[in-house]
Write a structure and sequence with these properties.
Two copies of one chain form a homodimer. Chain A is an alpha+beta fold and 193 residues long. Chain A has one domain: Jelly Rolls, CATH 2.60.120.10. Chain A is built from nine helices and eight strands. Chain A has a four-stranded antiparallel sheet with strand order 1-8-3-6. In chain A, strands 2-7-4-5 form a four-stranded antiparallel sheet. Chain A is globular and about 55 Å long. Chains A and B meet through helix 3 and helix 5 of A and helix 3 and helix 5 of B. The structure holds a DNA duplex (30 and 30 nucleotides). Chains A, B: InterPro entries: cNMP-bd_dom, cNMP-bd_dom_sf, RmlC-like_jellyroll. Chains A, B: Pfam families: cNMP_binding. Chains A, B: GO terms for molecular function: kinase activity. Chains A, B: This is cAMP-binding domain of CRP or a regulatory subunit of cAMP-dependent protein kinases. Chains A, B: Keywords: Kinase, Transferase.
Chain lengths: 193, 193
DNA sequence: CTCATTTCTTGCCATTTGATAAGTGCTTTT
DNA sequence: AAAAGCACTTATCAAATGGCAAGAAATGAG
């Protein structure tokens, strides 16, 4: 499988030279997921850091009443990891599952940490991945507070149309913070226009 | 001013030895804020990483209609920093302001980075601070989706009662994702019981 | 202390969203 | 092909929350 997308991604997000990026990429192993396979299961410790080259993944957990809530969608050409479990070795509160067939490259915590320790430029990459995830969550939280469901729906269609192509509507609904009934209403209104 | 709370905090959140912690703490400078002083202003690059020993701070930004939205409250004995701006040197989208008189210790990005590079154990600390902030935001986002305003209100009183002691209700309201009118109603219902 | 400003509360009504349940259509199983 | 299961839609009604405006209370300035 072609590691070029991975190398490009690292290159664009760290100050490392091309040669160092190539060395780093060597440590990643190819992997594949069938539709509905789990990359991470609730209650287990996350051991892998994944770069997704093909497909779509979804993170979800359960609220106090046992309802499934989609907490995130991971499009391709992005890193997929659950920071809390991966970096602190705590049991994960979340599941990460393949929505479609997925392909990518993984690296274990031990190897990644070795690289962070031996390659200062790569540490920047690790930090950036965390900061980015953080920023996205902040924006989402802000949108939940300040925007109407309709606007959040429009924003998601605009920013990640592929999600609507592959994910189930009830999963998208809980990601948007609404019920599937409400999402259905919104879709109806939009199809009228 | 007494640096002991800072040393304890670093000690509890990194694998560094006491001696190393003491060295690290030397790099932090004492600082104070009058009520309403800004630690960080929107549009500026955040240059400091702050450990708050006294007081309460608040992060806020504005939505598209120009309404102020409180995005976070920082209680004492915690690190205060805006990850996106501090670590990527981008202009901050947020403001961080002292709700009460505040005291603490700051370190600049350059010095902090020096420490991260020279003290591997301290890197764990930096990573943990990011991961923790991330986890908290995720939980808050989940609560916004799955819980009623009333429950979010109860949770906040339980976890951070000091916020209700010092912050304005309209700021707490926007943090909870409701209007000040609704918060007022909730308070009324609770005072009945 | 008094006045002005800001913050908070309250009442009224409108809107958004949720809960439930029935119905439609698609897919899978047997 | 019939039956069962699942995803999605739709209708109805109820509950939560917002918007607005007026008034009360607290705070700050002079």
């Amino acid at each position: 499988m072609d590691k070029e997308p991975l190398r490009n991604y690292i290159q664009h997000n760290s100050p490392a030279s091309r040669q160092i990026v190539e060395t780093i990429a060597e440590y990643f192993e190819p992997c594949e997921f069938a539709k509905n396979d789990f990359f991470l299961k609730e209650g287990k410790v996350s051991t892998d850091y994944l770069f997704l080259t093909e497909g779509l993944m979804r993170a979800f957990s359960f609220d106090t009443e046992g309802n499934e809530v989609t907490t995130y969608f991971y499009p391709k050409n992005r890193m997929v990891f659950e920071a809390a479990s991966f970096f602190t070795h705590a049991n994960s509160a979340e599941n990460i599952q393949a929505v479609t067939v997925c392909k990518g490259f993984t690296i274990t915590f031990e190897k990644l940490n070795e690289l962070f320790h031996s390659i200062p430029e790569f540490r920047e990459f690790g930090r950036l991945m965390l900061v980015r995830g953080f920023v996205e969550f902040k924006q989402r939280t802000l949108a939940l507070i300040t925007k109407r469901a309709e606007e959040r729906y429009k924003d998601l269609i605009k920013s990640n149309p592929e999600i609507f192509q592959y994910a189930q509507l009830k999963h998208i609904a809980s990601y948007l913070g609404i019920t599937d009934t409400s999402l259905s209403r919104l879709r109806k209104e939009f199809s009228k226009r």
